[in-house]
Amino acid sequence: MSQLPECLQELQIMLQDYTRKVLDLPQGYRRAAILIPLFQNKNNWFLLFTRRTERVSHHKNEISFPGGRFDTSQDENLIQTAIREANEEVGCEDIEVLGLLDDIFTISQYVVTPVVGYITEDFDLKCANHNSDEIEYVIKVALNKISDPEKYWTEAVPYKGDNLFHVPFFNYDGEIIWGATGRILANFLNILTRFELPCRSEMIGLNQWIVQEDEDYSNLSEI
CB-side exposure of 62: number of CA atoms within 13 Å? Predict the structure, then answer.
């Protein structure tokens, strides 16, 4: 495992002290985990997303982080789930975990745990061999561009009849990131901004992202 860049050492320490929201598992829901993959290229920081195919069971053609369902036969914990799924979906193996973010509910009845990880290997050589049954293609998203407030908005999305939820949307060069993935991305940008890391300007730019309050989805499982 290579040495973490100083910026990520600071982020790892902060995440270890972060009191994250841990959600109980309602009846009928399952555990899942996603990886928020960070990597660096020419002094710029990027996140890795995937465009899902039409052949997957849920969230067809949507943009997502690599991840999937917790498997008791393969995973000792949700960190292992995130790393295993990232390896299966996009071929990344050499990942250093930095910490965990807040759990979220999804409309497909999962409780998802986001795991922040640093891809220490050469992304283009080792992480571009995606699973074509699940992944249409991979998307490299520059943090200093996606954190531009002009690329962000919210929309009221209907759920089970008359229920409406205000969901984050991001537009990255025509790729629309929204739903659970948008909420996780917004939460990640919120945390980077609130931590006030010395290297924040290096990662997302100063005065870029404006902290957004996540709508309370805590009753989602009861509707």
Answer: 16
Cα distances from 74 to residues 71, 77, 85, 117, in angstroms, run 5, 9, 11, 20
Handedness of CA 39, 41, 46, 49 (dihedral sign): negative
d(CA 62, CA 201): 30
Tokens of 41: 């290229």
Are 2 and 84 in contact by the 8 Å Cβ rule? The answer is no
Q: Looking at the domain that runs over 6-208, which CATH code has it been given?
A: 3.90.79.10
> What DSSP assignment string belongs to 39-85?
EEETTEEEEEEEEE-TTSSSSTT-EE-SEEE--TTT-SSHHHHHHHH
Structure confidence by residue, pLDDT tens digits, 91-102 = 888 899 999 999
For 48, the token pair is 């890795």
**97 vs 99: CA distance, rounded Å:** 6
Residue 19 has pLDDT above 60, yes or no: yes
pTM: 0.91
- Check if the beta carbon of residue 166 is closer than 8 Å to that of residue 160: no
Per domain, the residue ranges of the chain are 6-208
